[in-house]
Every structure is written in structure tokens, then in C-alpha cells.
Amino acid sequence: MSLVAASAPPALHDSPPKPVVPRAAATRGVVAAVLAAATLLALTSDALPWPASARIAVGVFAFAVIAWTVLRLADTPVALAACLALIALGVTTPEALYASLGDSLIWLLIGAFVIAAVLQQSGLAERWALQAVAGARTAPRLLMRLTWVIAATAFVVPSTSGRAALLLPVFIVLARAVGDVRIVRAMALLFPSVILLSACASLLGAGAHLVAADFMRRLGHPAPSFALWAWWATPFALLSSFAATALISALFLDRDARARPLSLPVPDRSPLSASQRRVVIVTGLTVAAWASAGLHGLDATLVALLGALAITCKPLTGVDMKAALKKVEWNLVLFLAATLVLGETLLRSGAAAALADALLDAVPLQRFGTGGVLMLAILISLLSHVLITSRTARALVLLPTVALPLAAGGLNPALLVFVCVLGSGFCQTLAVSAKPVALFARTEWPPELSQAQTPIDGALLRLALVLLPVMALLLWLFAAFVWPLQGLPLRA
Fold first, then answer.
1. DSSP 275-334
2. Residue 154 CB contacts under 8 Å (≥ 6 apart), including other chains
3. Do residues 91 and 349 touch, judged by C-beta distance below 8 A?
4. Domain contains 133
5. Residue 304 belongs to what domain range?
6. Which of 213, 416, 427, 464 is at a distance of 20 to 30 A from 473, taking alpha carbons?
7. How high is the pLDDT of residue 365?
8. pLDDT band, residue 445 (cuts 50/70/90)
9. Is-contact 112 226, C-beta < 8 A?
């Protein structure tokens, strides 16, 4: 779990040395070239009864997936390049790209980022987290209390990487106080796991959720509001998070570690400052307004912008808009805008329908039955992170290529979209599978424990192998029995 040691500087040469291409990178390049050539041959075949716009859209989409999965290129540049390619080839227009930057989902994300930035700068999150776990006297109780705290942050902090950055100081403080390698390693697994699994509780928990909501809307289904999404997803988020917590406690804490009494730091219980109280009020009113949109009629985006404007009034909270905007994850904002364009193009060009028809011709869904089709969608979404490391990119790939085609088996398309996007939140198999996992896996422990640090990649894989069937069962039970009772029917 320690940071990789820096290599020694290269020796000086009279002439610059030739760059050495790692064997793995060269292999990925060959595989990518072969897949790209095969895609071109398939899409230019006269036997393919697709319109030109659908062929181009699928081709650009396939090249983007190859760049993400095989070449492991950065998400945002690839998505923007794909949008520019679609514009150049006449499948979409520049106005579509410009309009995506003005989409309500983009401004909802920006507003939420601004609110989260002020909340982080105020120090309230760390203060509340330490207060919440102060009464834990054993490691299992500490892990359980941390799970509640981490899950709660999903409703006020957009993106899992933002929540990881917010909670990392809490991990460091607790690791220093606990002083037990086994418990610290369990916490290093718990923080990213619960961050990822609990994110689905909130519409703002991940950019992938906004892509899913937009996809539902473009398919003609009502896009879920902040409150409706929470109504559907919060029970699943909590159950899956606590299942992960229980497994971490059972797998990585022996009897002595579970019984060992803890001495946690005394939390700061001094009164909040005036600016902190105002941050609490603005944040609370914003979340309450999101949850009660059906009563006052203001949509979530307008509420987010009003909250961002209020919380960055410097005389009120001590933070101005300029400072808060510096904390916005603009990379994610641009990536989400680009994925909205790609998703819209796949639907409007007929590419998504063409892919669905191709899958139906290749796979006889009637033989699977409703339960089998549902489990197929669940397994694909749970395993997709092995190939596609970006959660938003996984949503963009899964929705037109898995959710829409499998809906032809008689299932509700909106339910399959929901299942796929929630399943894609399982992504803690490897340290590179998600940014929160990488952050906690590579963070240095306190000096007194640093000599005992070991990589947690093996522990992550061990946890994932046990958690995978649990996640699959939970998704199947919720899709088959719970969500239909909550107004999201299983069948179309």
C-alpha cells in the first residue's frame, strides 16, 4: 500500500536515448489497431443494412471505447475528440456540443460542486465525521459508524473522487489514533468501497447517474427527480455498503483486532463559528429543496445555482465564488457534456436501435426468460469496470449496448438503465479501477505505521470476489421485487 519508490534518474548521454516502449503498451497498440480495423471492415460492409449516420455513430463510439479500454487513454480528451469527429462527419452539429454545455444537468453538477467546495473548506465534514465515530469502542463499531458517515456525504458532494478527497483527512486522523495495522488496512478498504457503493443513493453521487437520467428522458421515460432517485436507490446503497462493511470486518479483522478496545481522538465540540453555521443552513436548505421539488416547483438545477450563489456570498460564509469555482472538477463537467452529446447522437442517428437489433439477432433472449435477461444485465454491469475504468464512460457504453437491447426481452427499459448504472458502481477489484480506490491505496500511512505498509491490491481482489455475488443477488432482488413496489416496474 506504499507509494512506488521513485526510480533513479537516467544517466546522461551525448545524444538523447531512444524512448523505450513498454511491451504492454506495444501490445495494447496492436490490439487496438486490430479492433479498429475489424470495426471499419464490419461497418463498411455492404451486407450491413444500416444507414450511413448509424454506421458513423457506431464507428466513432467503438473507437472511443477502444481508446478507453484498450489504450487506457484519458476519458475527457477521448470523449471530446469523439464529439468533434461526429461533427466533422456530419452526424451531429457544433450547436449540439455547445448546447450540451448549457444542459441543466451540467449546471446542476457545477452548482453542487461549488456547495461541496465551501463545505470542504469550512472543515465541517471532518469535524462531524470525528464526532460521529467518537463513541466507537471497537473496530467493528468504528467501521459501522464510518459507513453511515461516508454514505451521508453522497447527498451533498458530487462525484466519488470529490468525496474521497473530502474524507481522506478523516482516514489519516483515525489511522494515527488507532495505531493497529490490521484496522488501518480495513479502513483503507472501507473508505473507497463505501464511497463507491453509497454513491448511487443520490442523483448527484456520480456523473453516471446524470447520464442515466438523461438517457431515460431521451427514451421517452420521465427522468427521476432528486427525491425519486433517492427513494429508489438509498435502500440499495445502504444495504450494499453495510454488506461490504461486514465482509471487510470478517475477512480482514481477526478476533483480537475486533475485540481490541480503541482510543479515538476527542472531537472538537466547541460551538460552530458564525460562518460555519451559515454554511450548515445553506447546505441544509439546498438539500431540503432538492428533496421537496414536487412541493415548490423549482427544479434541482435552479436550486443548486441558488444554493451556490448563497453559499459563496463572502460576508455570509467567508468564501467567494472565485475560490469555490477553483475546486470544481471541470474535467468531469466537460466529460459529462461530451457524453451527453455521444448519447444523444447514438439515439438520434438510429445507432442505438441498430445495435439492439444486432444483439437480438445474435442472442435469442427468449431462451433466457425474464430472470435470465435481468441477471445477464446485472453481471455485465458489475464486471464492466474491469475494462472501462471511468464510471461515467461505463454508463455511456452500457446504456445503449446493454440496457436498450436487453429491454427487447420484455423488461422495462427504465429499470434496465437503473440496474446497469447502479451495477457499474461496483468497481473496487483493482487499485486502478476507480479514483477513490487509487487514492486510498496509494496514500502514505502515518509515520509510526509506515513500516508495516503493504500493497492492498490482493486484499481488494479478495474483497471483490466475495462481494460480487452479494451485489448480484441484491441487484436481482431489488429489480425483481423491491423497485416494482416503489413504482419502477420490472416489465415494460
1. HHHHHHHHHHHHHHHHHTHHHH---HHHHHHHHHHHHT-HHHHS--HHHHHTTS-HHHHH
2. 163, 198, 199, 200, 201, 202, 204, 205, 237
3. yes
4. yes
5. 26-39+50-485
6. 213
7. 67
8. low
9. no
Q: Is residue 470 part of a domain?
A: yes
Say whether pLDDT at 118 is over 70: yes
Mention every residue, 6+ apart, whose C-beta is less than 8 A from residue 398: 380, 381, 384, 420, 421, 424
d(CA 40, CA 4): 40
Cell representation of residue 484: 416494482
Residue 309's pLDDT band, with cuts at 50, 70 and 90, is very high
Q: Is residue 296 part of a domain?
A: yes
Q: Which of 480, 469, 472 is nearest to 371 (CA)?
A: 480
Q: How many CB atoms lie within 10 A of CB 344?
A: 18
Q: How far apart are CA 409 and CA 492, in angstroms?
A: 9
Worst-scoring range by mean pLDDT, 123-132, 145-154, 467-476? 123-132
CA distances from 18 to 8, 10, 84, 225, 363 (A): 18, 12, 33, 55, 49
Domain total of the chain: 1
> Closest by alpha carbon to 127, among 263, 287, 272, 264?
272
Place of cell 469555482: 325
Distance CA 213, CA 225 (A): 9
Q: CB atoms < 10 A from the CB of 263, how many?
A: 9
- 117 DSSP 8-state letter: H
The residues, any chain, with a CB within 8 Å of residue 131's CB and separated by 6 or more, are: 267, 268, 269
- Cα angle: 365, vertex 368, 369; to 5 degrees: 95
C-alpha to C-alpha distance for 381 and 401, rounded to whole angstroms: 11
Cell output for 59: 464507428
* Contact call for residues 451 and 2 (beta carbons, < 8 A): no
Mean pLDDT of the chain: 83
With respect to residue 227, please indicate whether it lies within any of the assigned structural domains: yes
Residues 6+ apart with CB under 8 A from 396: 211, 339, 342, 343
Helix %, strand %, coil % of the chain (to 5) = 70, 0, 25
Residue pair 311/282 in contact by the 8 Å Cβ criterion: yes
